[in-house]
Design a protein that fits this description.
There is one protein chain. By secondary structure, the protein is α+β, with helices and mostly antiparallel strands. It is built from three helices and seven strands; from the N terminus they run ααβββαββββ. The chain has a five-stranded mixed barrel. It is globular.
């Protein structure tokens, strides 16, 4: 055997022996969000991240005392939302919305968007495999 072949085999064995890079698996809804903890939040859209694998809607929610809290709402991928009638241009910065969402299990200011109601009364119900416009 040549020296190059021996070196290549040695490198291959070392690489095979080393632990692999972490693999990111897709999470289930139930693993991250608690459907037994629905939330209704009313606030102003501050940012929309219309990206794969999930769209994120960020809203500024004010409590009765006027203090603001930033919430991040995860939802379905852009293609599924578009198929159901929700487009990124419908989610304008500064738009007042009311959302029904499921709180994150870690109690952070993260929730999964279930329904969005716009100031004019239009509603879009978002659910896996079923996105409906109402009113």
């Amino acid at each position: 055997m040549t020296l190059r072949l021996i070196a290549a085999l040695a490198i291959g064995l070392v690489l095979a022996w080393l632990p692999g890079a972490p693999v990111s698996a897709h999470h289930s809804l139930a693993s991250q969000f608690d459907e037994s903890k629905p939330l209704t939040l009313q606030g102003v859209i501050t940012k929309v991240e219309w990206v794969n694998p999930h769209v994120y809607l960020h809203i500024d929610v004010k409590d009765k005392g006027g203090a603001s809290t930033q919430w991040s709402l995860e939802t379905l991928p852009p293609a599924m939302l578009r198929k159901g009638g929700l487009r990124s241009d419908m989610l304008g910065k500064g738009e007042m919305v009311t959302v029904l969402a499921y709180h994150a299990r870690n109690e952070s200011k993260l929730a999964f968007l279930r329904k969005i109601t716009f100031a004019d009364g239009r509603e879009i119900v978002v659910w896996i495999g079923d996105i409906k416009q109402a009113k």
